[in-house]
């Protein structure tokens, strides 16, 4: 009996490995890049979820032509209820409203809630519903984007999902540090194109993105990735650095290629700063980061743990002249599994403010140093060993 159980477990693990390997191969073969040339736009940065929600909900309620929304996660609480009510009220008034949510991230949108959306006239679909073949791989492939487009004129993109956790009302995490952009100008047409591509894959409906406006004051790029290009793009950023690299991310699990690029940057005199949260929302992500952080620390990197809440920001700043803000984390899931969307900004005044905000958070953060390493608990050390096996999924 015991032998049978062991053989069954081995067979099950083998099937999962093959499912993941073959699913990955098919994913790469069928990869559909979204071409997005350099564009321009205007932007406003949000670091506070309450302020973001207030303005975004208000602008949705004032929409005249259409509202297109994609979120990775919508919770089941009073914030999400308010958000869904805004969408339903808009649809009842005759404005086309489309809502797309990741199948796993949107699991709290139950059948009753979906019926209410449909009855109000909201077009609703789940994205990335797992299925066969390659169920295990497809279960891990998520659409992690967060995009809102209002009347084809205003867009929102960044790290905030929808729920009370994101306004600091989580007993576990407290204050929530994140970044989100409000966009206007030609760039809105590009993020609309990304959202409608996801809509087509979920619904089968082909829609035309809004026409680019002509009021963009700053050069920008939108990078939409699908688990194929992001590692290469991050490597290009790192290799371009001459003076300074700032990385803010909730999860730091680089590939060997990116870890080597960061070490090479330090060797050529580039200052490397990394900030991650002290608190963790998943059991193995922080232990998985420690070996990489330790190696970079010993090379001379400055590494800090944000401890005034939960650090969910996803930013990279290079030499004070380039900033990447979006949905992608510095981890294997974003590099090889998730759909992500990021904004490249080149405005040095904006980047100066963003850089100042980064160091303001870093000033009160806890240093990653030898003292901290020596104080690691037995559980943390054990989880580090387990996390080595889980890196492809983290």
Automatic annotation (TrEMBL):
Its EC number is 2.7.8.-. Residues 139-166, 307-334 form the PLD phosphodiesterase domain. It is an enzyme of class 2 (transferase). GO terms for molecular function: cardiolipin synthase activity. InterPro entries: Cardiolipin_synthase (IPR022924), PLD-like_dom (IPR025202), PLipase_D/transphosphatidylase (IPR001736). The keyword Magnesium does not apply. SMART domains: PLDc. Its main location: membrane. Keywords: Cell membrane, Membrane, Repeat, Transferase, Transmembrane, Transmembrane helix. It is found in: Cell membrane. GO terms for cellular component: plasma membrane. Pfam families: PLDc_2. One of its GO terms (biological process) is cardiolipin biosynthetic process. Coiled coil: none annotated. The keyword Membrane applies. PANTHER family: CARDIOLIPIN SYNTHASE, MINOR CARDIOLIPIN SYNTHASE CLSB. This is Cardiolipin synthase.
């Amino acid at each position: 009996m015991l032998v049978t159980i062991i053989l069954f477990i081995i067979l099950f693990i083998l099937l999962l490995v093959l499912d993941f390997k073959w699913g990955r191969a098919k994913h790469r073969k069928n990869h559909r890049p979204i071409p997005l040339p350099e564009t321009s736009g205007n932007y406003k940065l949000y670091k506070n979820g309450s302020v973001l929600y207030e303005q975004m909900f208000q602008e949705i309620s004032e929409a005249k032509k259409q509202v297109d929304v994609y979120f990775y996660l919508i919770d089941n609480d009073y914030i999400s209820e308010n958000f869904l009510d805004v969408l339903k009220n808009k649809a009842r008034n005759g404005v086309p409203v489309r809502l797309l949510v990741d199948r796993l991230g949107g699991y709290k949108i139950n059948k009753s809630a979906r019926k209410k959306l449909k009855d109000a006239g909201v077009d609703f679909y789940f994205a990335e519903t797992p299925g066969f073949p390659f169920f295990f791989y497809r279960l891990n492939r998520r659409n992690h984007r967060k995009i809102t487009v209002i009347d084809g004129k205003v867009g929102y993109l960044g790290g905030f999902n929808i729920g009370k956790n994101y306004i600091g009302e989580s007993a576990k995490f407290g204050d929530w540090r994140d970044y989100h952009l409000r966009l206007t100008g030609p760039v809105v047409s590009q993020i609309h194109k990304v959202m409608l591509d996801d809509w087509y894959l979920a619904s089968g409906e082909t829609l035309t993105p809004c026409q680019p406006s002509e009021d963009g004051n700053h050069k920008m790029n939108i990078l939409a990735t699908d688990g194929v290009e992001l590692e290469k793009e991050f490597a290009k950023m790192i290799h371009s650095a001459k003076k300074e690299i700032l990385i803010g991310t909730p999860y730091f699990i680089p590939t060997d290629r990116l870890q080597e690029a960061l070490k090479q940057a330090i060797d050529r005199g580039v200052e490397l700063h990394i900030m991650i949260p002290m608190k963790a929302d998943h059991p193995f992500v922080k232990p998985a980061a420690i070996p990489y952080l330790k190696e970079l620390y010993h090379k001379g990197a400055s590494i800090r743990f944000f401890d005034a809440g939960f650090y969910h920001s996803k930013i990279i700043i290079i030499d004070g002249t380039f900033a990447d803000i979006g949905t992608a984390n510095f981890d294997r899931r974003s590099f090889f599994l998730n759909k992500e969307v990021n904004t490249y900004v080149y405005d040095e005044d904006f980047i100066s403010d963003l850089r100042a905000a980064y160091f303001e958070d870093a000033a009160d953060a806890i240093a990653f140093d030898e003292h901290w390493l020596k104080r690691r608990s037995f559980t943390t050390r054990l989880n580090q060993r387990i996390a080595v096996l889980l890196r492809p999924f983290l």
